Amino acid sequence: MNNKLYSSVAIQRQLLASSAKNLASYLKYSSRHSGSRHGKCLLTRCGPNELGPTIKRKAQEIRSRIESLGEEGVEFQLRAAQPARIPHHLLATISDVAIQKNRIALFVEVTREGFESSEAVATRCSRLVQWGCDGVAVWTDIAFTPEGCADLQRVCDEVEVPVLRLDYAIHPLQLTETTQAGAAGINLINAVLSDAAPRMLALCDNLKLDYALEVVNEEELQAGINHGCKVFGINLSVGLSLAIPGFKHDMACRLTQQIPFSALSVVGVSTLEEAVDVKEAGATAVLLKKEALAGKSDQEQRDFITELLQRLSDTMF
């Protein structure tokens, strides 16, 4: 039992009650937020569905799991939660890359391709690491894989670099299964968590699990700063959907520039030029989106990664 993580049954039940209330809200999420404006931008997602229906589906999945476990089962899993395999591995890696390699860190987004197995996903991740990538970001949502946690654990067992879990986290159970799989961190979407964000950030800290709090506008960025956020994510699982050419990328750069010096940032990019732009805007790490390598042979992917690493180090300071 991890008494340091959950010191009393009262705190535990308060967390569960709060989560149950949030789940009820998430089940109504699609009608409130699907295609709606948050500040000055629209929320979208990297995948086949809009964010609203995705969050509603995710809430239904979590609710079904809670019902199958029962209150005592959920409480047991949370109280037995183990801290991250390597505490704050993602944070340490980003800092080490800046100091030792004189560049910003490179993570690559990975999803299953076709009918791949977990072993095949892990093999691709291992290859990316051999080419010089500092970490990988693995999708575990059912829209991308039927065995998300299995994929995550297999990758974590295969590589020694930090593995970031990409999903739609709305409940503490998702954080505990992330550490159980061996991942170094997880993305958290500020617009989805809303008032629950501080509790989820605190739980991550207790688990020594790193996170990237995704923000899409200045209001959300300020809220994250007020919460003491250590790592911000921009254009990871949610992005900016605007018809004005180039505005999405400009907004990403502008948000990156406003992140406090005391915090780190992971910014999603799809091209070499975007990577250079966000580096110059002050990003401490980039997440190369999967479309950047789509359709390329292994050699072409390796050449792309090699050039990207070079551009991330040129005139860093």
UniProtKB/TrEMBL annotation:
Q: Which is a GO BP term held by this UniProt record?
A: L-tryptophan biosynthetic process
- Pathway where it operates: Amino-acid biosynthesis; L-tryptophan biosynthesis; L-tryptophan from chorismate: step 4/5
- Keyword annotations of the record: Amino-acid biosynthesis, Aromatic amino acid biosynthesis, Decarboxylase, Lyase, Tryptophan biosynthesis
- All residue ranges annotated as the Indole-3-glycerol phosphate synthase domain in the record: 101-301
Top EC category: lyase
Q: InterPro entries given for it? A: Aldolase_TIM, Indole-3-glycerol_P_synth, Indole-3-glycerol_P_synth_dom, RibuloseP-bd_barrel
In alphabetical order, the GO MF annotations are:
indole-3-glycerol-phosphate synthase activity; phosphoribosylanthranilate isomerase activity
Which Pfam families does the entry link to? IGPS
- Whether Lyase counts among this entry's keywords is yes
| Catalytically driven reaction(s) | 1-(2-carboxyphenylamino)-1-deoxy-D-ribulose 5-phosphate + H(+) = (1S,2R)-1-C-(indol-3-yl)glycerol 3-phosphate + CO2 + H2O
Descriptive protein name: indole-3-glycerol-phosphate synthase
